[in-house]
Structures are given as structure tokens and as C-alpha cells.
Amino acid sequence: MHGYPPPAQIIGLLANALFLDVLDQDAEMMQRINRLAEQLPPEKRGSVRPIRMLMVRPSVDLGKLSGEYESSLPASCRFVARGLGTRETESPDWLSVLLFENDYIDRLLEIGYQDARRQHDEIETFLHGDAPS
Predict the structure, then answer these.
(1) How far is Cα 1 from Cα 45, in angstroms, rounded to an integer?
(2) How far is it, in rounded angstroms, from Cα 34 to Cα 6?
(3) Which of 4, 49, 91, 116 could cross-link 63 (Cys pair, CB 3.0–4.6 Å)?
(4) pLDDT digits over 33-66, tens only?
């Protein structure tokens, strides 16, 4: 039988609930409003119009990635992080929100660049899809 989850895991779940889950809920709400707006005839929409949306997410679990950079934290922060059980959880998600170390930020930028390159056509279509050529 397993004991209680480490505080780092609980903090990570709370951070996800506060930040990421809210974004997902906003996207779902926007999709619902878009569907409703599309069902209305144009003359009855008033200023309501469907809004195009593009969800772009990192290809890497940022929580797991942040765990790789825990050792670069200042000693006092590393002490607190490890005391909260960062090494006892698979994905220390809360570190990804707080970690501002240069190497980690550089890695995030590289991941973002590569993800954008892979999704180039989709992003370009989103940005210029309705524009005349």
C-alpha cells in the first residue's frame, strides 16, 4: 500500500488546476459560444461572431523537464523543493511554474521553437487563413 502523495505532487496538481485547467475550460466555453453563434442567422447575431482558435501545447511534459533542472536551483530553493518531495513524484509540475534558471528557460525556448516549426503550416493557416493571397 502506498502512503500519501508528497506535498510537491499536491502542489503540482493545484498549480495545474489554477492555471492549465482554467485555460482548457476557457477554450471549451469559447467552442460552445462559437457553436451557438454559428447556429444563429447572421442578421440575428448582432456583434456576436465565431472566433477562430488554435491550441498550441508543448510536446514535452514541462513538469518532468523541470525535474531535470532542479539541481540548478539555489541551495535554499533546492532544499525546500526536495523537502516537499520533488524527487518522490514523477512530474514535479509546480517547479515548471517557478523555475527561472537560464538553462531551463533556454530549453523551453528551444522546445517552443521546434514545436512551432513542426506546426508551421497549421499556425500559418490560422494566422493567414482568411487573408487574400
Answers:
(1) 57
(2) 41
(3) 91
(4) 999 999 999 888 888 888 899 988 899 988 888 8
Closest CA to 39 of 30, 50, 28: 50
Report the distance separating Cα 67 and Cα 86, nearest Å.
7
CB neighbours of residue 86 within 10 Å: 23
Q: Is residue 133 part of a domain?
A: no
Q: Are 64 and 75 in contact (CB under 8 A)?
A: no
Task: Provide CB contacts within 8 A for 97, sequence distance 6+.
Answer: 15, 19
Range(s) of the domain holding residue 116: 7-128
Q: Is residue 1 part of a domain?
A: no
pLDDT per residue as tens digits for the range 61-113: 888 888 888 878 877 777 777 777 777 776 677 777 777 889 999 999 999 99
- Indicate whether 42 belongs to any domain: yes
Domain count, the chain: 1
